[in-house]
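Slide 14.
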Amino acid sequence: MKFIDEAVIEVQAGKGGNGVAAFRREKFIPKGGPSGGDGGRGGSVFALADRNINTLIDFRYARLHRAKNGEQGQGSDRYGAGAPDVVLRMPVGTIVTDLDSGEQLFDLSRHGQQVVLAKGGEGGLGNLHFKSSINRAPRQCTPGAEGEHRRLRLELKVLADVGLLGLPNAGKSTLVAASSNARPKIADYPFTTLHPQLGVVRTGPTKSFVMADIPGLIEGAAEGAGLGHQFLRHIQRTRVLLHLVDFAPLASDGQDEAAVGKQLAATVKGLAQELGHFDESLLDKPRWLVLNKADMLSETQRETRWKAMQKSLRWKGPVYTISAMTRDGLSTLLYDLQAFIDAQQLQAIEDEQPDVRFAEKTDHDQA
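Slide 15: predicted structure.
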């Protein structure tokens, strides 16, 4: 299935049915009075977050979504039927923005969340509502209200716990394939990953987290080089970023291991600048440095290159040396990620819930 993470749609809610002016006319009841019913409610357009959907491809070509109008009222106190609502199922993580005003309307961040994209018009009132002691035969009625009409932009930001960053061919797809059941395309040329890939990493019978692989970034992505910043939105919701570095590039003529290390440090700084160009808040996220393809280097080469990198980078975050191909050091990285994510989730729960014990103690003291 083709991955689609942007779409523009148009939603039109149904018009409410008109009220009617009618009178009760029976053979032996010459003055039956007003009997005009109300019009039915127009159908609304809803959006429903569904975790079983992972792309916006359903909205790429079906651009117009229209609900039906409500039925008109009728005589003999008969009300018009309301129109059925239209429910659009969207992947969890979809952001809905008004295309005309640019205002963000909704963020479908949890499964089952339902929001109103366009509200249907209310039905008009029949003359049954206008009778009174001084107006025994009202002839007025009201038309149904128009339904809302909106042009919307849908933008999908996938929900993942861990996001992978790195230059093309840094080994991101290999890492996802080695740690989960996802099978992204892997090849020995740049930009084999053309759209985000998600993998569920299981570290125990009841423990797992989601890892997101996005296409590689290169210098100048802010100006549109490579695939640009097109897919960086998919790591904005992650809890931690893994910065993968190809630790085993071949040394050029006249280069020693220390020079290679300085060159790797420059690439790390360059990618951090590209993150800042897109969204400065990404630089505040926890970022771990992962030195990949270590199986291609000797112990001496690893140590020399890392010392040169550290001298230039002054990196203070966690650092892991792994080989996604041979899985060396991979289990340590994954278990540390699971522990970090569990701690973050626990902290989020504690921040949302008040301390019940303190509240009980306070109530007791007051009593």
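Speaker note: The chain has two domains: 6-156, 162-352.
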